[in-house]
Amino acid sequence: MTNPTPEDIAARIRPALTKLYVMYFRIAEQSDLTGPQLSILARLKDNGPSRISHIAKQEGIRMPTASNALHQLEQRELVERVRDESDRRGVRVTLTDLGASELQRVGEERTTYLAEMLGTLDEEGLKRADELAEVINELADAYGANLIDTTTE
Fold first, then answer.
1. Is residue 65 part of a domain?
2. Of 81, 125, 142, 143, which is most buried with the most CB atoms under 10 A?
3. SS3 content of the chain, % helix, strand, coil (to 5)
4. Nearest one of 30, 101, 91 to 66, comparing CA atoms
5. Where does the record place the HTH marR-type domain (predicted)?
6. In Å, what is the CA distance from 24 to each residue of 29, 39, 65, 73, 91?
7. pLDDT of residue 152
């Protein structure tokens, strides 16, 4: 048997990933924050105050899309705009205390939902999922780095 190609693996797992993604977000709908909004909040938590252009690049989205998402988060007092101390003409967006607590609450809630999904696996399935967790995280980190590289060119 030959080694599987990335295309072979993608064809096998894409339908299941899509199904799991849809089911996960259906049961995790108690928060009215969208996935992209949560991603922006998490990025601000990890990286600190950032310019809108930097957030757009990191998220792989256009400036108007980032600006709109940030405006919605600002209306909910989850982020705020602050003067850039290194360039007084510039503005950075920072996570508020409310934003940090909401990010933590929603993260814990969604971890619980995902744990419930994983809890349907038998012991062997859980062991295999544990082994795959590292691969999934590596893929997410590598893809995120590649996305940033391609949007800065």
1. yes
2. 81
3. 70, 5, 25
4. 91
5. 6-141
6. 9, 16, 24, 22, 35
7. 43
Lowest mean pLDDT segment, chosen from 7-11, 82-86, 111-115, 142-146: 142-146
The 10 Å Cβ neighbour count of residue 123 is 7
- CATH, residue 60: 1.10.10.10
- Domain-embedded: residue 15: yes
Residue 151 counted as domain residue: no
Cβ-Cβ contacts under 8 Å for 74 (sequence gap 6 or more): 80, 81, 93
Q: Is residue 67 part of a domain?
A: yes
Question: Do residues 132 and 83 lie in contact, with contact meaning Cβ atoms separated by under 8 Å?
Answer: no
Owning domain of residue 55: 6-120
Report the share of the chain in percent with pLDDT over 90.
Answer: 48
Give me the amino acid identity at 118. L
Tally of structural domains, the chain: 1
